[in-house]
Design brief:
Layout: E1 7-8, H1 9-18, H2 48-61, H3 65-85, H4 92-99, H5 112-133, E2 138-139, E3 155-156, E4 159-168, E5 174-182, E6 186-193, E7 201-209, E8 220-228, H6 247-250, H7 253-267, H8 271-283, E9 288-289, H9 300-305, E10 311-316, H10 319-340, H11 351-379, H12 381-392, E11 394-396
Antiparallel strand pairs: 1-11, 2-4, 3-4, 4-5, 5-6, 6-7, 7-8, 8-10, 9-10
Helix pairs in contact: 1-3, 1-12, 3-11, 5-10, 8-10, 11-12
Length: 404
């Protein structure tokens, strides 16, 4: 927290750009900048000692800002270093080619413009329904983008970023809602819950690559959908077969993590919801799964933040696939809203809320690191950084809610 105001990812970006080496120095500065996976805030697994230490430090100091600021800076530096040293940040054209490699060509029967327009209209309907059901949800003009908002104006791939940010502190318990759209390019809905309940965060994102003069090739659509658990269940330790390490590996903590997974499955990852995900997958045409939990191709930060049902698929841009995604996204938003309005998911006052806040603070910085990597790879370093900062919202906000 700087001058008593929430410290946001955008502030991290601005300060880091002005003085990347020491923008967030609290004590003696360090010239070492680790890779992204080395800057994560431990959430469990092999990092439980660090997790416990962070819990105690936060409780004693009343703020997570130093750790969050340092991690955010190192995440930015890591992507910049990768771009400079290994030239791994490729152009949008080569990124689109990499995503679709090995899948063959398919000329979609809809174009990027009409597809994103459909996603935008549907998303506006979803957000309107949420707002009508949660009257306290209020627009955050200082965190919204696109003329004539106050926060500023920037473009991605030549298109204006349109982002309506909202929140509903207190009993409504919505810490951050990002309604994001970029013409012909991206549609994304992100909802982070406050600490008063254990309702999963919602990530619903569609990105179109290829299909224009700049990118070349046939248009492809990446769809990512996830309900993200609010407690550590060792999902990052799941193997490709879906198995988790037991007490012989993790000791007594294996039962704690197993209990967290059972609690999530009982409340949210029910048979009905699992069947919904499976049904959507079965309706896609030509879809290919991207690396998921247990796969070697998934980064450590991705593994730490993903939920057990996460869907990450790339497919041809077609009318059927667009319609299937529209249905999936609307159903997912409806599920989230039903959970958010269900008082049975509320935490008891006191320690459970405080513990949830601490966990959420670390989740947000890890999720920011994931989003930063995704957007930089898709849109390049400069535009990717700005978009990740805007879409992530406040990384370490003094959000305590009305029942804490």
């Amino acid at each position: 927290v700087i001058s008593g105001k929430p410290f946001s990812a955008l502030a991290a970006l601005i300060l880091a750009s002005n003085n990347a080496a020491d923008a967030f120095s609290i004590g003696p500065s360090s010239s070492r900048r680790g890779v992204v996976v080395a800057t994560k805030l431990s959430m469990g697994g092999g990092g439980m000692d660090a997790y416990d230490a962070q819990m105690k430090a936060m409780a004693a100091g009343g703020s997570t800002s130093p750790a969050v600021e340092e991690a955010a800076t190192e995440m930015l530096d890591a992507t910049r270093t990768a771009a400079t040293i290994s030239n791994s940040i490729t152009s949008p054209a080569s990124v689109g080619a990499n995503i679709g490699s090995g899948r063959g060509s398919h000329l979609g029967d809809v174009d990027p413009s009409s597809a994103i327009a459909s996603f935008e209209a549907s998303q506006a309907k979803m957000v309107a329904e949420i707002a009508s059901s949660i009257p306290d949800l209020a627009k955050k003009d200082d965190a919204s983008y696109g003329p004539p908002t106050k926060a500023g104006y920037f473009t991605v791939k030549g298109h204006a970023v349109k982002l309506d940010a909202s929140d509903a502190p207190g009993p409504a318990n919505v810490a951050w809602l990002s309604d994001l759209c970029i013409d012909e390019t991206l549609s994304s809905l992100t909802i982070y819950n406050g600490p008063l309940a254990d309702v999963p965060h919602l990530i619903s994102r569609c990105v179109i690559t290829g299909g224009d003069e700049e990118d070349g090739g046939d248009a492809e659509l990446n769809f990512f959908l996830d309900f993200r658990p609010r407690a550590y269940g060792a999902y990052d330790l799941r193997d490709a077969a879906g198995n988790y390490p037991g007490p012989d590996t993790l000791g007594r903590q294996a039962f704690e993590y197993s209990g967290a997974r059972k609690d999530f499955d009982t409340k949210f990852g029910t048979e009905e919801v699992v069947a919904f995900f499976e049904d959507i997958r079965g309706k896609f045409e030509g879809a290919v799964d991207n690396p998921g939990l247990g796969d070697e191709g998934l980064s450590e930060l991705e593994s730490l933040t993903r939920g057990p049902m996460a869907m990450d698929v790339t497919m041809p841009l077609s009318a059927n696939n667009v319609e299937t995604i529209l249905t999936a996204r609307e159903k997912a938003a409806s599920l989230w809203l039903s959970w958010a309005l269900d008082d049975s998911h509320a935490h008891r006052p006191g320690a459970p809320i405080n513990s949830q806040y601490v966990y959420d603070s670390k989740y947000k910085i890890n999720a920011y690191g994931v989003l930063l990597d995704v957007y930089v790879k898709l849109f390049g370093q400069a535009e990717g950084e700005k978009l990740a900062a805007a879409d992530s919202g406040p990384i370490d906000e003094a959000y305590v809610g009305g029942g804490s």
